[in-house]
Design brief:
CATH topology of chain A: MetI-like fold
Distance between the termini of chain A: 33 Å
Bound molecules: adenosine-5'-triphosphate, magnesium ion
Number of helices of chain B: 18
Oligomer: heteropentamer
Distance between the termini of chain B: 17 Å
Strand content of chain A: under 5%
CATH architecture of chain A: Orthogonal Bundle
Number of strands of chain B: 20
Strand order of the largest sheet of chain B: 8-9-10-1-11-18-12
Number of domains of chain A: 1
Largest sheet of chain A: none
Structural class of chain A: mainly alpha
Helix content of chain A: 55-70%
Largest sheet of chain B: 7 strands, mixed
Shape of chain B: globular
Shape of chain A: elongated
Strand content of chain B: 15-25%
Radius of gyration of chain B: 24 Å
CATH superfamily of chain A: MetI-like
Order of helices and strands of chain A: HHHHHHHHHHH
Helix content of chain B: 25-40%
Chain lengths: ~290, ~525, ~325, ~325, ~350
């Protein structure tokens, strides 16, 4: 299967990918126009505290008197934003480092590979926790920066491997023999062939960012005044929501994280199938034996 | 069955045991050095005792412990303790005035142990003779009585003058502490410290509870849960929605009582930024609905503070109601507008402020969230920055903030907290470390009041505190928001004798030392 | 031989880089350990006392950075990490030694179980492609693998701990009032405490193994040598295990070794949620308590275990897969 | 000579996303004991699929859609795995298209031989070793290579090791799918000679697939020409070569430049093989056939017996004899 | 005779193999001297790994020679400096790669390479006409209807179709020499001949030269004017195709010709003639590389590398035995290939 333009078609043709894409689309809409999903347009508006679900509040209100459903809807934006930003930035870093490692060759390659491997074995979560604690994890740029720093290496390694396998592919030599410049070869001949790997890599990083961000917020190293799912969980946890009849305060954001994560994972799962035709599902017909 | 039975099976006896649920944040190190602040809460009150117990809740009412009595000279520069006869250390050796003098001189020799800075604030000598110990001060030092008599645990000379302890008392682990208190450490694991009644304790027949388990809780939730289910009987932390979570689980036996002890306040930088302008500070003081902050931040479990800085009802005798009424600080949008206008702010030019707080202090975070929401419609944008404790401290001490959310340690009378807030000796120029006056308030007149207080009589002391309240109200150097309390949950199923609002014989929180000793001595098995 | 030398070289260089990072990161943070100490004494301390404390704690920051760095490297090699500030005055190595068995027991065992179980399920669903197991299990576990650790933990607590009124404990490594030791009561208690945390790790990590194993088996099954094995008349089950699974698991070994290496740090959030007295939780408290010596020691520990695991997996793969040996 | 294998009306379909594709369509084939049958055809015409169907080694998405494979009197299509197992390798062995992939890369040659023998009840270590060494030497490889991994052998050696493995039990039928196509001319020739020699020596029958027509010309007794999933012609090799009964066979032969003789311009066969998903309604070769006539576009030709040869061409239909004469003249 | 269009002198390519410690030199092409004249098809045959593709790649400047020089139109390639000069060489000498599965970028339609080539090398074709031009060359290699093929992606094409795309790319530049590395190996038998015919008509009608690398000796005979035979990095025989095939002089050529299956002839060789593997040319020592497999080998063959000598007009052979038979023993060593 051609890695590039076929992706969209392949996603639509793959049940799991389609499910993932639809879920993701809903989250994207909620992030862009949360107003569509709730009548309360200020997630911090206060009502009576700890109302049960129903009672005019779909999931009830929390100990702060906020409407949990509204919080959930408005929390989508930050969670998604972090995922996408980290996904994009880390992808760019891994492309630059991975592909140039493969193309530099020699000492440059060795150094970049070493850098990649070092970042790969350095424990990410502890590092994030340390950096977040001291650099002010609450600040979005810091958070994104930290996630990018710890998130790029795996993708870089994969991209390097792929680029290495391309390095001696004849179509690159064919382009060179045609008279193309090196920059053209890298940007227009190599990158397009790695589209599905880059996409899979992006999804992987986004999932990682989503879970890590939520984890950081949860243990209280994020920005607790942000509207995000991790923050909701943080507050729910510190307010003993599970024990005080506010289960939805915990279940809803966790479920949202899980669903968004699942949409990434499903898409990624599908990308595996798209990238490797052998994995594609086959229909089995009853055969006379 | 609940109650203390969980611990009773292990030591074979049928006697009731007590389990304390108090979040320490870490596991135990099995060190009990009472001068090491990270572990002193495990030894003071249990193993080590003070000379005299001073009750902050009852106007500094004194209960003699190791010292039978104490006496100030009339110039309040000499303090004499008479040491009780017949007290034995838990290893059987007698406790003498020598031990007491040794303890204080140990602090002198090792500055790292002198946590209350006794020797750098006027204490000049400590000498024992017979059964008395005499202390000499360079200035009248009556307020230091609290630190000397109540806050300094007495340690045995025969242990601390030899070996490991003598070599480096700061790093001394003190794994097997020898003290004079009601308990000894019978077993220590990183997960749990077990105490056993001290057979040599000088109060006959006490303590009535023979075994105590003090598990290490690293997080609130499990501690809360153990309290709610009755597995632990003595709690000392914030339980969200305590009525529903805790009391409702066992309406007859689960109780709580939260006596206020100090203020949680907003420190306002008086030296730089918008808050150097009194009008801005006043606008802020009129902008906050403290009751609502309490309701949202801690579910109403903390009382709101008054601008005078007097913790109520604890120190109600000191409160100057008339002065407070004159200013009438409470949320008032009109006044906010007026003062903001005076300072030159308007809707076109809103006031932008940032406030620092400690990340991980979730109650503070929630309170600031609420304050931020309150200020917004009033034209004040508050940027809440939750930063790591160390960074926070660094900024707080150096004056590198506009607003800072924080609290003082307080003491048994309003004087202590007010002095921490307002005395110029406790401050420092921006960029240097201030020890407690973070707002950097300084006024000759106020300083004179503080200097006069230690030597003054009771009536004059009240007058001085009234004047100091006036400073708080007029100059708004800090804005007290909520009163911090001594967190206290208790279970009466198998144990009685707990302090209550009616019988406030000690600060009730298990982490309040040495008040915990008073509680332990009052407790007894039910029936 | 060259293979070994090269891998060892990589190991040493990476270790050195990681240790160096580890040295500099805390020093790039604002403040210093002395101030951390001051904060711990709630500002009641006067400058003299502070000086005295600094010396006592070995927090003398006057030495040039380079000297400190060399000393640090030396100490790291000899395992001297100084005393912990949180658990003052316990040496860091003791503190870590207390926590390590818990993590190894909980996360280590769970990781092995997850790997075995996931590989087994993956093998079967890959072999019986599009069978019932294959159409249900992999997608389900792909979804569960996207759930946050702590949230799964919370839900498990809600259902199995609160729901059963504490039959399965939700916090700690064991009942603190028990006497730790090799007695049945204690061991059963430890296992009971491990069930929920280990279940949450299992739920989240097993999906990855299932999926990779399944995909590897599916690609392996398409290989001609599997068809060949069938042509030889070898029984189906034998082919599945001896040919398909054996070959398909090879690429997973490296991942398994690495995840074993990450055991030490991997389940921070689970340990946090369940208040489990392991290394991950300890790291978290070291961070919040600004306990640099402890933090550095844990980092070194984690990095070294990961590196060793990677090294072992390299050798193991080389041992089991002749192709790798000759390729390098 | 007796009939060892009788394939009748065998069809195989692949399930694809755009519906089932028939890759082998109603193929008849019989093989006598000790006979060397060649199958030629262009790439993708269904040769490998046919072989797998005969050996019952199809995997999804492929499945037998009809027909019978009678081997030693038993219909293999109707047998289950348990019934097939004893026949496999002992009576019928397979040499796959690419030896690199057909040998398990992580097992030594020795172990792969042993696996096959153990599966058929030979347990004695000595017996296994002796037999392994025997067959390896039979194909001219030193016995030390029993301990080698596949990747340590060169392409030609791997092919030979495969062939040796196929001979572990001296089966009655060895199916070979392009065993030499990855080799260069010289190596190819040498391996073919060896196979032929072994076959004559041990007396097994061979079905040999290739798309290189000239290769089979020297080695096979009978030749089947496949085109677009169908059998086009089947008969004694010499006869097919000398007077091809099907225009496609003739086209193939004409497309070969000669190594000797005069250099004459050749034309090949214009056009391309049909797409398996969109077959012409009549004869599949009709769009490219130089001899086509009206009926070809609508009538599906059957297999007609022409002397010793079967051919699927309407020219041999009794109804169209006139046209056939025309064809022969050309 | 005018100067040849493309000429190689002492062309050598050495690859470094192995790691840091045990470095070796693999002589993929060793001291090759040959020339390709205008309007000539030269076939290059030889066993797998003998260095055929390496020669083509050297000529296409995929990588530089380790030693030796390539002359184009009488000018050395090492003298090309500016990008314009390099581009003009690239336009004149395009290459068709051996493996059609890896030589087309899977991310683009098949028109991509052709259109890019036109943009770089055919300024006379306006941007809007490039698509038409692409269709024209596709039709020329027998891919019709071309309008349908241009929009396809490589994965939608068979190996044979891809191979023809590669050839079409080269055609689009209006080249002078096409370096065709096994351009028909994947074509079905019935189509192969069509492309061979395209090659001959290119030569006959447009005077295009070709280096035709192949394993298929019969097809080489069909199209080529001259043939060069390689063995283990060296050219062992070269001459007019009929001479080389009709009367091979080098023992390897003889083996090769004998191995070619001829459906219409009787099986000539029944004996096992060639076992043994072609040598890898790693750190070679002097001597004939075929000596170990050669039935005629003598002592001199193992110690002295036979030079490529012109044994008959236009026929050059590198073999001690053949040279001796032709009366040109090892004593009269006048290297061939330099006298043109
Ligand atoms: N998994 C599959 N799904 C769909 N179609 C398939 C599959 N495998 C093979 N085919 C189709 O079946 C047809 C026959 O394939 P087969 O491999 O039998 O050809 P072949 O004659 O052996 O070709 P070659 O000479 O290239 O080996 C081809 O057209 C191919 O496209
Ligand atoms: N980039 C390279 N690095 C190292 N060795 C190489 C490289 N390219 C080619 N070789 C080696 O050079 C020798 C000649 O290779 P080349 O591809 O020229 O052979 P060939 O004659 O084209 O073979 P084939 O007929 O299989 O295409 C081979 O041994 C090959 O392994
Ligand atoms: Mg095939
Ligand atoms: Mg080649």
């Amino acid at each position: 299967m051609r890695p590039g333009a076929g992706v969209l078609r392949a996603v639509v043709g793959n049940k799991k990918a389609l499910a993932g894409a639809i879920m993701l689309a809903i989250f994207v809409i909620a992030a862009i126009v949360p107003q569509l999903f709730t009548t309360i347009h200020n997630p911090n508006q206060q009502f009576a505290q700890m109302l049960p679900p129903g009672s005019g509040h779909l999931l009830g209100t929390n100990a702060f008197g906020q409407d949990i459903w509204t919080q959930l809807v408005y929390g989508t934006r930050q969670s998604l934003f972090v995922c996408v930003m980290v996904g994009v930035l880390a992808s760019v870093v891994s492309i630059i480092i991975g592909v140039s490692a493969a193309y530099l060759g020699g000492l440059g390659e060795d150094l970049l590979s070493l850098l990649t491997d070092v970042f790969l074995v350095i424990p990410a979560l502890p590092l994030i926790i340390v950096i977040a604690a001291y650099a002010g994890g609450g600040k979005m740029p810091v958070l994104i920066g930290v996630l990018v720093i710890t998130g790029w290496s795996y993708g870089a390694r994969q991209l390097r491997a792929q680029a290495m396998s391309l390095r001696n592919r004849d179509f690159l030599e064919s382009a060179r023999v045609r008279g193309e410049r090196a920059s053209y070869v890298i940007v227009f001949e190599i990158l397009p062939t790695m589209v599905s790997l880059i996409a899979a890599n992006f999804l992987g990083i986004a999932l990682y960012a989503l879970l890590t961000e939520a984890g950081l917020q949860f243990i209280g190293l994020g920005n607790s005044s942000a509207n995000s799912w991790g923050t909701m969980l943080h507050w729910a946890q510190t307010n003993e929501a599970l024990q005080t009849g506010q289960q939805w305060w915990v279940i809803a954001p966790g479920l949202a994280i899980g669903l968004l994560g699942a949409s990434f994972a499903l898409l990624n799962y599908a990308f595996d199938e798209i990238g490797n035709p052998a994995l594609r599902p086959v229909r089995r017909r009853k055969v006379r034996r | 069955s609940g109650g203390g039975s969980s611990g009773s099976g292990t030591n074979g006896s049928k006697s009731t045991s007590l389990t304390i649920a108090n979040v320490g944040g870490t596991t135990w190190t099995c060190g009990f050095n009472p001068f090491n602040p990270s572990v002193s809460g495990l030894s003071i009150g249990f193993v080590y005792e003070p000379l005299v117990y001073v009750n902050p809740l009852q106007n500094s009412k004194e209960t003699p412990m190791i010292a039978e009595s104490s006496k100030w000279s009339s110039d309040k520069k000499t303090l004499t303790f008479t040491i009780r006869d017949g007290i034995k250390w838990s290893d059987g050796k007698p406790l003498t005035a020598d031990d007491v003098a040794f303890t204080f001189n140990l602090l002198k020799a090792n500055k790292g142990l002198d946590l209350n800075a006794l020797w750098s604030s006027g204490l000049q000598s400590v000498e024992a003779s017979g059964n008395t110990v005499t202390m000499k001060f360079s200035t009248p030092s009556q307020p230091y009585f609290y630190y000397i008599a109540d806050q300094t645990p007495i340690v045995p000379k025969h242990i601390w003058s030899t070996g490991e302890a003598a070599k480096n008392p700061v790093q001394f682990t003190d794994a097997k502490p020898i003290g004079s208190g009601p308990y000894t450490v019978s077993d220590c694991k990183p997960q749990n410290v077990r105490y056993q009644a001290n057979a040599n304790f000088w109060q006959k027949g006490k303590p009535a509870i023979k075994t105590i388990n003090y598990p290490a809780y690293t997080d609130n939730s499990p501690a809360n849960l153990d309290l709610a289910t009755g597995k632990a009987q003595w709690g000392g932390q914030y339980i969200p929605n305590v009525d529903k979570y805790y009391v409702d689980r066992d309406k007859t036996d689960n109780h709580y009582w939260y006596p206020p002890v100090a203020n949680v306040q907003i420190f306002l930088n008086l030296k730089q930024g918008p808050t150097a302008d009194l009008a801005v500070r006043q606008a802020l003081a009129y902008a906050i609905d403290k009751d609502q902050v309490s309701k949202i931040g801690v579910g109403g479990q903390l009382p709101s503070s008054n601008q005078a800085g007097i913790v109520l009802p604890t120190f109600k005798d000191w409160y100057d109601q008339a002065a407070a009424d004159k200013y009438g600080y409470k949320q008032d949008p009109a006044k906010v507008k007026q003062y903001l206008a005076k300072a030159g702010y308007s809707t076109a030019k809103p006031l932008n402020l940032s406030i620092i707080s400690v990340s991980g202090y979730t109650d503070w975070e929630a309170e600031l969230q609420e304050i931020k929401h309150q200020l917004q419609p009033l034209g004040i944008n508050l940027d809440v920055q939750n930063i790591a404790g160390q960074t926070y401290d660094n900024k707080l001490y150096k004056g590198d903030f506009q607003l800072a959310y924080g609290s003082q340690t307080g003491g048994p009378a309003p004087y202590y907290e007010l002095r921490q807030n307002l005395y110029s000796g406790n401050t420092a120029p921006i960029g240097q470390n201030a020890s407690s006056n973070y707002s950097r308030y300084s006024s000759k007149k106020t300083d004179a009041l503080f200097n006069e207080y230690p030597g003054a009589d009771d009536q004059r002391q009240h007058a001085i505190v009234n004047d100091l309240q006036g400073v708080m109200l007029a100059d708004v150097p800090t804005i007290p928001v909520l009163e911090s309390v001594s967190w206290f949950q208790y279970n009466t199923k198998e144990i009685t004798g707990w302090p209550t609002e009616q019988d406030q014989y000690a600060l009730p929180a298990p982490y309040a030392v040495p008040d915990n000793e008073q509680v332990l001595l009052h407790l007894k098995p039910k029936g | 031989m060259r293979f070994i030398v090269r891998r060892l070289g990589f190991f040493l260089i990476t270790l050195w880089v990681a240790l160096t990072l580890n040295f500099f990161i805390p020093r790039l943070m604002p403040g210093n350990p002395a101030q951390a100490m001051m904060a711990r004494y709630k500002g009641r301390i006067n400058p003299d006392a502070l000086k005295a404390l600094e010396v006592a704690f070995g927090l003398d920051t006057q030495k040039p950075l380079l000297v400190q760095y060399v000393e640090y490297l030396g100490n790291t090699v000899t395992g001297h990490f100084g005393v912990s500030l949180t658990f003052f005055p316990q040496p860091v190595s003791e503190v870590v030694a207390q926590a390590l068995p818990w993590t190894l027991g909980l996360v280590g065992v769970t990781t092995v179980i997850a790997f075995l179980l996931g590989t087994g399920i993956g093998m079967i669903s890959g072999w019986r492609r599009n069978g019932i197991a294959d159409s249900v299990l992999p997608p389900v576990f792909v979804i569960t693998s996207a759930l946050p650790y702590f949230w799964v933990g919370l839900i498990l607590i809600m259902v199995f701990s609160l729901g059963t009124n504490g039959a399965l404990p939700s916090d700690g490594g064991y009942d603190q009032t028990l006497n730790p030791g090799w007695n049945a009561e204690f061991i059963i208690d430890v296992i009971k405490h491990a069930i929920l945390p280990s279940l949450s790790i299992l739920i989240i990590s097993i999906g990855g193994w299932i999926l990779t194993m399944r995909n590897n088996v599916v690609t392996t099954v398409a290989e001609d040598y599997i068809r060949m094995a069938r042509a030889k008349g070898i029984a189906d089950r034998k082919i599945m295990i001896n040919y398909a699974a054996r070959n398909a698991v090879l690429p997973n070994l490296a991942g398994f070794a690495i995840s074993l290496g990450f055991v030490v740090s991997g389940a921070i959030l689970v340990e946090f949620t369940f208040n489990y007295p392991g290394v991950g939780y300890m790291l978290l408290s070291a961070v919040t308590n600004e306990d640099y010596p402890l933090m550095q020691a844990l980092f070194v520990l984690i990095t070294v275990t990961v590196l060793v695991a990677v090294l072992i997996s390299d050798f193991l793969t080389a041992l089991l897969d002749p192709r790798v040996r000759s390729a390098s | 000579m007796s009939k060892l294998l009788q394939v009748t009306g065998l069809s195989v379909t692949y399930d694809t996303s755009s519906g089932p594709v028939t890759a082998v369509d109603q193929v008849d084939l019989d093989v006598q004991s000790g006979e060397f049958v060649g199958i030629v055809g262009e790439s993708g015409c269904g040769k490998s699929t046919l072989l797998f169907a005969i050996a019952q080694l199809l995997t999804p998405p492929a499945s037998v859609a009809g027909g019978e494979v009678i081997f030693r009197g038993q219909n293999m299509v109707a047998m289950n795995a348990g019934e097939l197992a004893p026949i496999r390798w002992r009576n019928m062995s397979v040499v796959m298209q690419s030896a690199m992939n057909a040998l398990n890369p992580v097992k030594r040659i020795r172990a792969q031989y042993a696996d096959a023998m153990k599966a058929h009840g030979i347990r004695s270590k000595i017996e296994i070793r002796q037999r392994s060494e025997e067959v390896l030497e039979l194909v001219g490889i030193d016995r030390v290579h029993l301990n080698s991994f596949p990747h340590q052998l060169s392409g030609g050696m791997r092919q030979r090791a495969m062939i040796a493995m196929a001979l572990l039990f001296t089966p009655e039928l060895v199916i070979m799918d392009e065993p030499t196509s990855a080799l260069d001319v010289v190596a190819q020739r040498s391996l073919m000679l060896q196979i032929k020699e072994l076959q004559q020596q041990l007396g097994f029958a061979v079905i040999f697939v290739t798309h290189d027509m000239s290769l089979v010309s020297h080695f096979s007794d009978r030749l089947m020409v496949m085109y677009a999933a169908q059998e086009m012609e089947y008969g004694p090799t010499r006869q097919v070569f000398d007077s091809p009964a099907h225009p496609y066979s003739r086209g193939l032969l004409d497309a070969f430049p000669q190594i000797r003789g005069p250099r004459v311009p050749l034309q090949g066969i214009p056009g391309a093989p049909p797409n398996l998903t969109a077959m012409p309604p009549g004869c599949r070769f009709e769009p490219r056939c130089p001899l086509r006539f009206d009926a070809c576009a609508v009538t599906q030709p059957a297999l007609y017996q022409v002397a010793d040869v079967q051919a699927r061409c309407l020219l041999h239909d009794p109804d169209h004899r006139d046209k056939a004469e025309l064809g022969r003249d050309r | 005779m005018t100067a040849p269009l493309l000429e190689a002198r002492g062309l050598t390519r050495v690859f470094r193999v192995g790691g840091l410690r045990n470095r070796h030199q693999l002589h993929a092409v060793d001291e090759a001297d040959f020339a390709i004249n205008a309007g000539e098809i030269v076939a290059l045959v030889g066993e797998s790994g003998s260095g055929k593709s390496t020669i083509a790649r050297l000529l296409a400047r995929v990588y530089p020679p380790s030693r030796g020089e390539i002359m184009f139109d009488g000018r050395p390639l090492s003298g090309l400096r500016t990008r314009a000069e390099v581009l003009s060489y690239r336009a004149a000498v395009p290459m068709v790669f051996q493996d059609p599965f890896s030589s087309l970028n899977p991310a683009y339609t098949v028109a991509h390479g052709i259109v890019r080539g036109l943009k770089l090398h055919r300024p006379d074709v306006a941007a809007k006409d490039r698509q038409d031009e692409a269709e024209r060359v596709l039709t020329a290699v027998g891919l019709s209807p071309a309008s349908q093929v241009v929009g396809r992606y490589p994965y939608e094409l068979s190996g044979g179709q891809r191979q023809r795309i590669g050839f079409a790319q080269a055609l689009a530049y209006r080249p002078q020499v096409i370096l065709a590395d096994e351009p028909v190996s994947m074509l079905d038998i019935s189509i192969r001949i069509g492309l061979l015919n395209v090659m001959t008509s290119l030569r006959d009608e447009q005077g295009v030269s070709l280096l035709y690398i192949t394993h298929d000796i019969a097809s080489a005979r069909y199209v080529a004017d001259r043939m060069m035979v390689m063995y283990a990095g060296r050219i062992v025989e070269s001459g007019p195709v009929e001479d080389v095939l009709g009367a091979p002089r080098h023992p390897y050529t003889q083996l090769l010709v004998a191995a070619v299956p001829d459906p219409r002839a009787e099986l000539a060789v029944t004996a096992e003639m060639a076992k043994g593997e072609p040598p890898k040319v790693i750190d070679p020592k002097p001597g004939c590389r075929f000596a170990d497999r050669c039935p005629l080998a003598r002592d001199v063959c193992r110690t002295t590398t036979p030079p490529l000598l012109e044994l008959a007009p236009g026929i050059e052979v590198a073999c001690h035995v053949a040279a001796e038979e032709a009366g040109r023993g090892a004593d009269s060593m006048i290297p061939a290939g330099r006298n043109s």
